[in-house]
Amino acid sequence: MADRGAWGQGYSSLMGVSDLAYSAYARRLARRLDPDRLPHHVGAIVDGNRRWAKRGGTRFEDGYKAGGDKIIEFAQWCDDLGVEIVTLWLLSTDNLQRPAEEVASILAAVETLMEQIAEERRWPLSVIGNLDMLPADSATRMKQLAESTSDVQQMRVCFCVGYGGRQELTDAMRSLLVEQAAKGRSLEEVAETLEVDHIAEHLYTRGQPDPDLVIRTSGEQRLSGFLLWQSVHSEFYFSDALWPSFRHVDFLRAMRSYAARERRFGA
Q1: Tens digit of pLDDT for each residue in 211-221?
Q2: Complete domains list, the chain, with CATH
Q3: pLDDT (tens digit, 9 = 90+) per residue, 157-182?
Q4: What angle do CA 83, 84, 87 make, to 5 degrees?
Q5: Which of 18, 46, 64, 66 could form a disulfide with 109 if both were Cys (CB 3.0 to 4.6 A apart)?
Q6: Residues classed as catalytic
Q7: What is the pLDDT of residue 60?
Q8: DSSP symbols for 12-23
């Protein structure tokens, strides 16, 4: 029978070689990226946390914890490349229909993540979504954490929580109509003068540039309503990796794919 100690040493050596090769490949990918062709705003649909936990035989809470850790890594990768804004979809309006225990776990993971970023003062935070749909204590805590980072001068990190593209457009139109009614204008008058920019001014993301690149993990090739209005001219990149397993090389490949494209903006 082979000596187990020798086998273990051989396996460790192989892992060491693999790690070195991975690091070398990642550095080569990064060096070949043209800084002038990289996105300024990256959106991410961080999908696959529950499936990751299920495949690993762990609790779904562990999947959300691992997903939160990956968000820190992902944001740092973006920051290292000079990205200016990162927007991540963490909890959809559809997700709010899941069992209360699971929703509570997601919200707890989001709050813990925001607390870590705020405490380290790494990036300024924003929360995007209909926070009235969340438990009041969670909504209040997230707002407080975001406000506590308002003076941080770094890449902005936006968390979409209680977010849905259709919900955003509904809220935008409601806000616009309420505003116009307060000015004494009739529906007919609003309809006659309504323009695209008027709606954009009432989106959750008003004042923020649209995403250049949207990444979705877990092999799903759809947006599911993520930044429905804002992503009309975005480039998309779909990765088979479940979010907690999304690696630096996967990220760099997404950047390479984006840099190689000729953006037409609908033309």
Answers
A1: 999 999 999 99
A2: 39-259 (3.40.1180.10)
A3: 999 999 999 999 999 999 999 999 99
A4: 90
A5: 64
A6: 47, 95
A7: 87
A8: HHHHHHHHHHHH
